[in-house]
Prior knowledge:
Layout: H1 6-31, H2 33-37, H3 42-59, H4 65-77, H5 89-95, H6 102-125
Helix pairs in contact: 1-3, 3-4
Amino acid sequence: MLKIRAEQLEALEAHERVKFENKVLAHLQEVFPEETANAEGGEEEIRGWIRDGVERAKEFGITKERDVTLFIDLDLGVALKFEKKRSMAWAYKILTDEELPGTAKIDLIYELLPQRRAKKKKRKRK
């Protein structure tokens, strides 16, 4: 029987984390070229955003790669730690809804985001 020691498991998990970080880093540089190019701390700062996003997403039950990536996209597309912004209180409500699975939370936020932004723009014009 094959036995995996704790150290081996940790090394495997670390390898997978770095692989995911690299994937998200490339994605962010492609989708948000200006924001990533302007990161004062360069690539290491962006990796910090990614790690922070992964941990915050996990707190809301968001764990699938696709969903975590979309969560991190909100950090760059809306604001870092977007869920703490007053204008995103509606998204925080969704994120903290324990009845919803992680994918449903992300999908709902992305479904409602354009409508919420449009409403906000209308209010600013008045």
